[in-house]
Every structure is written in C-alpha cells, then in structure tokens.
C-alpha cells in the first residue's frame, strides 16, 4: 500500500494478520503529525458504527484476512467511502476467486496462471482482469493454446 498525503484524518483497520502491513503507514502519519485512529478485529462489532461516524476527508487503510477485509470494505462502501478514499490488502491468502466464462461458476484457486473449472471441467487461463463489483478474476479459454492442440476440451480449426 502507498501512503496518501494531505488527508484530514487517517483510519487504520486490521486483524491480527494485517497489523504488520499498516505499521509503516502509521509511522508516516505520526511523522506528519496527522490525526489517525486504529481499530483491530477484536472490536469487529464496533467497526461498522465507527465507519458510519467518519467525516469527509477521512482515508481508510485496511489489511487482514480475506473474510475480514471483504466485510469491512463492504461496510466502508455502505458508509460512503469511495475507491479513492481507501486502500486494502488481503494478507496470507494466496487464493483467488475465479469466474468461469463457460458455466459462470465460481471457485477459489491458488495464485496461478491456469486452473481447471470444477463445475464444467474447462481449462481456464486466469486473467489479470479483476471485477471489483463481484470480487473475482475472469477465467477464460486460452484460444492460442486450443489452436495448437494444447487444450483438452475444445479444438478450433
């Protein structure tokens, strides 16, 4: 994550796995003598209310497990934070959710370039395209590989 200067207030939110990610950013804020708050996962019940109380000009840094980050990010968006007003990082989970272009099934896979859809059996190449709305990566057919006979499902002549 990158430090974003000249914000009215900085908000840091993490669980146990994400606290180390935020330490250098908190140090930047302290050096610049800017106001900040830090919430931990142990205070999860209060995080949604805390986000709803924030004013314009606040900037949110969020780090932690996949479940934690996605939940708090959802609450932040509901509280009115835009993508330009927050940064987040998922820590310790190399899994990515993939959307199959053929059957529209969703599944998690390790961070790799290719995967096999468990729903329809299609070999998928994992795109760099990430849908923020659905929080998934696109899995698509590698047409070049199919033309050379490398694919097991389809053959394009």
Summarize the structure.
Helix content is 26%, strand content 32%. The protein folds into 2 domains: 9-90; 96-141, no CATH class.
Describe the structure.
With about 160 residues, this protein is of the alpha/beta class. The protein folds into two domains: about 10-90; about 95-140, no CATH class. The protein has helices spanning about 20-30, 45-50, 65-80, 145; strands at about 10-15, 35-40, 60-65, 85-90, 95-100, 105-110, 115, 125-130, 135-140. Helix 2 packs parallel to helix 3 (about 65-80). The N and C termini lie far apart (about 45 Å).
Q: Shape from CA axes? A: elongated
Give the CA-CA distance, first to last residue.
Answer: 45 Å
Give helix and strand order, one letter per element, not per position.
EHEHEHEEEEEEH
What proportion of the residues form beta strands (DSSP E)? 25-35%
How is the largest sheet built, in terms of strand order? 6-5-9-8-7
Q: What is the number of helical segments per DSSP (H or I, 4+ residues)? A: 4
Average per-residue pLDDT, rounded, comes to 86
> What structural class results from the helix and strand content?
alpha/beta
């Amino acid at each position: 994550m990158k430090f974003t200067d000249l914000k009215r207030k900085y908000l840091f939110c993490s669980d146990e796995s994400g606290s180390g990610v935020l330490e250098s950013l908190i140090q930047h804020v302290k050096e610049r003598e800017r106001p900040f708050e830090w919430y931990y996962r142990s205070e999860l019940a209060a995080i949604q209310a805390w986000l709803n109380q924030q004013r314009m000009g606040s900037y949110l840094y969020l780090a932690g497990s996949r479940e934690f980050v996605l939940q708090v990010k959802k609450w932040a968006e509901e509280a009115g934070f835009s993508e330009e007003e927050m940064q987040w990082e998922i820590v310790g989970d190399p899994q990515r959710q993939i959307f199959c272009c053929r059957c529209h099934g969703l599944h998690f896979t390790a961070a790799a370039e290719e995967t096999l859809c468990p729903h329809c059996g299609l070999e998928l190449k994992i795109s760099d395209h990430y849908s923020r709305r659905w929080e998934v990566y696109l899995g698509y057919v590698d047409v070049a590989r199919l033309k050379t006979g490398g694919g097991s499902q389809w053959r394009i002549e």
